[in-house]
Design a protein that fits this description.
single chain, alpha/beta, Rossmann fold, 2 domains, ten-stranded mixed sheet, 9 helices, 44% helix
Amino acid sequence: MKPSILVPVDFTDNAFNAYLYANNLAYYLDCTLHLIYVLPISSDSESSKRSDLARGEKEVLQSKLRSFSRWHPNEIIEKFFPVETSVEVALGDTAEQVIKCANKGLFRFIVCGTRERHSSREKWLGTVSSNIAMQAGIPVILVPNHAAFTNLDTIVVGCDEHANDDFVLAQIAILSDWFESQVHFVHVQQGSQDFEVIERDILEALVALQKKTLKVEMATIEGVDVVSALFHYASEKKADLLIMISEKRSFLKDLLFQSMTRKTAQPTSVPTMIIHV
């Protein structure tokens, strides 16, 4: 059974851009795609009122999802591949339903679109994509609305004491092997931290995991704002993917939940993968 890539869809251009990115990624990594649309509700009472409506709409929305996966005007100028695709319609809180779906399937990644504009409610509560990234147990790729898939020639990894985690390095090895990527492990130094031992562990683990020639570069840069420093480095290197490794309730609470998706969408077109340890 092939692994799959999960793509939340709200039928916007941003969602299609993320779907197109996932379509390319699925094609090259030999995965299937699963599109999910969540009909949002704000309360239990609304849920009971909308249950009949949701049942009536489900078939229409599934058909719309299938059409969404087959055709869009952007296909004229972008690469699009015939990838096996399934669809699902759910009712409830969007992030909650996406996580529920991710937990019950064999998914390699979740791919979410991000937006430049946010409502006042989202500024306080966080965007749907950041909530998904904070809660997911699998890697989440946040795709800015102008990002287009290219071969992952250059991958930048935000590197701290968690970067030598076996699961993290296995994910990096899969991508870098397939795309023959140059991988930059970048540590943003704040104070007098010694990173040399972890660098050695990373290299030894990657040598064991990778099947093709190892192309790795280690870098330490100064920075007060870790996220901004990594985005700046990724932009300078013309990275095709930025990977950030996090502990769910600390790093993301401070950085991702408050501003990650806005920073991802605005200063750079580099898609960002969040991996939890």
